[in-house]
Amino acid sequence: MLKVFQRPVSNALRSSLRVISTSNFSSSKNKNEHSKEKNRKSNSSLIIAGIASMVVGGYLHKKYSTPVYARTLPQLAGRRKQYNFISDAVEVCAPAVVYIEIRDMSRMDYFTNEPMSVSNGSGFIIGEDGLILTNAHVVINKQHTSVRVKLMDGRTFEGAVEDFDSVSDLALVRIKCKDLPVMRLGSSSDLKAGEWVVALGSPLALSNTVTAGVVSSTQRKSMELGLRGRDIDYIQTDAAITFGNSGGPLVNLDGEAIGVNSMKVTAGISFAIPVDYVKQFIHKSAERRKQGKSSRTTAQSKRYMGITMLTLTDDLLQELRIRNNNVAPDVKHGVLIWRVIVGSPAHIGGLFPGDIVTHIDGKAIKNSTDVYDLLDENKEVLAMTIFRGLKKMTINVKPEDNSR
Q1: Band of the pLDDT at 140, cuts 50, 70, 90?
Q2: Which of 65, 159, 249, 250 could form a disulfide with 147 if both were Cys (CB 3.0 to 4.6 A apart)?
Q3: 319 and 393 together in one domain
Q4: 267: DSSP letter
Q5: Which letter does DSSP use for residue 185 in this model?
Q6: Into how many domains does the chain fold?
Q7: Structure confidence by residue, pLDDT tens digits, 209-234
Q8: 324 in Cβ contact with 356 (< 8 Å)
Q9: pLDDT score at 62
Q10: DSSP H/E element including 268
């Protein structure tokens, strides 16, 4: 019984397995063929889309894109030699520029045991026999001072003030030396606004310091600056003129002196004395020496404070406020202190360059003449109301007799 039963079961299973296997193979075969067909259609679609995008992209690139070409960078060799016009002018002029030091013979330096230096400035050689031109305020301070001149090559000489005019602020100094390099004097009559100029000097005892800029104005009247008794049309420039390079040359690009550095009001506002006026001073000085006349012209007060000042006109105040935000809005008038001699009454009293004096002893100061008038009153102490930046303060200055 058992054997008879197992055989039919075995045959039935075989038949079932055969049917299932055949069915699965057929189904798998159909699925593979369907998948291949689907992949062929998908690949065909991608190929067609790629070709279309290439065609469209090429058209758009050709129509709208900017072609990029390889380029070679320019060669910069030789630019320094071609465009260094300022250094070319300096090379010509620098040997004639000198450093001037003023020493107080009545005061000795504690460390060096030499006369104390009270101020310094610059000048330039106009005669190969040792004649030097500078500002009067550089060499004319007070009694008991001496002038020492240092050349570019390092040699030092004692200088003698041969002539000066404190009204025009020009002076001639002589040293005992021959065969010196001479600065050529140009002309200021044909100077134009916007022209390049170079200011040379020795600020802070640094020989041949150079600043460059352009001419802002060729005819800034002395009356506009409130300068007492001067009939000069100053050259205004944005080349920096500091205390140390006062008296040095303002030169053009031909290497000619077209002015004498005189004063700086603030950054971008400096003034120089035109060389045409300087030539008149030199000529008159030579004529006076030939005739044996006194060659020293002075408009100095009998009382001495040791300052150089500039009247603040409306135009100058406006220009100061444009260039410098450190001017108090309360300042409507006064004088600007732009130089204070070391050891002077003003220095001892606490006055500094850049201070603006608006009142003295309660009297409003409108110009520099007001200060000179108060000095001539021989008051022992002057109470000066000043603005130092935005800060208002009062200091006391005790002027001294100018003959001391």
Answers
A1: confident
A2: 159
A3: yes
A4: T
A5: B
A6: 3
A7: 888 999 988 877 766 665 655 667 88
A8: no
A9: 57
A10: none
Asked if residues 245 and 218 have their Cβ atoms less than 8 Å apart, the reply is: no
pLDDT the model gives residue 384:
94
In a domain, 138, yes or no: yes
Residue numbers annotated as active site: 137, 169, 246
Q: Which two tokens stand for residue 82?
A: 């071609």
Pair (218, 253) in one structural domain: yes
355: its two tokens: 């201070």
Joined together, the tokens standing for residue 45 give 């679609």
Are residues 322 and 239 part of one domain?
Answer: no
- 158 with 210, same domain: the answer is no
Q: Are residues 124 and 203 in the same domain?
A: no
Answer whether residue 80 is part of any domain: no
Which of 174, 204, 235 represents a domain boundary (last residue)? Answer: 174
Q: Cβ distance 113 to 103 under 8 Å?
A: no
Q: Which two tokens stand for residue 209?
A: 């310091």
**191, part of any domain:** no
Q: Is it the case that residue 4 has pLDDT exceeding 50? A: no
| Residue 397 vs residues 56, 308, 354, 381, 386: alpha-carbon distances, Å | 89, 15, 17, 6, 12
Look at residue 22 and give its three-state secondary structure: helix
Alpha helices in 145-229 (DSSP H): 222-225
Q: Residue 393 to residues 115, 330, 372, 374, 386: CA-CA distances in angstroms?
A: 34, 13, 21, 19, 6
Coil, helix or strand at residue 197: strand
CATH number of the CATH domain containing 395: 2.30.42.10
Q: Is residue 364 part of a domain?
A: yes
SS3 category, 318: helix
Examine the domain organization and report whether 137 and 98 are in the same domain. Answer: yes
What pLDDT is recorded for position 299?
47
Alpha-carbon gap, residue 360 to 347, rounded angstroms: 17
**CB atoms near residue 341 (< 10 Å):** 21
Residues 96 and 154 placed together within one structural domain of the fold: yes
| Arithmetic mean of pLDDT over the chain | 79
- The CATH number covering residue 261 comes to 2.40.10.10
CA atoms within 13 A on the CB side of 172: 21
DSSP 96: G
Nearest CA-CA partner of 44 in 55, 36, 54: 36
pLDDT attached to residue 357: 93
pLDDT (tens digit per residue) in 297-349: 544 455 778 887 888 878 788 878 887 777 888 888 898 887 787 778 888 99
Query: In which domain, by residue range, is 147 found?
Result: 86-174
pLDDT exceeds cutoff 90 at 57: no
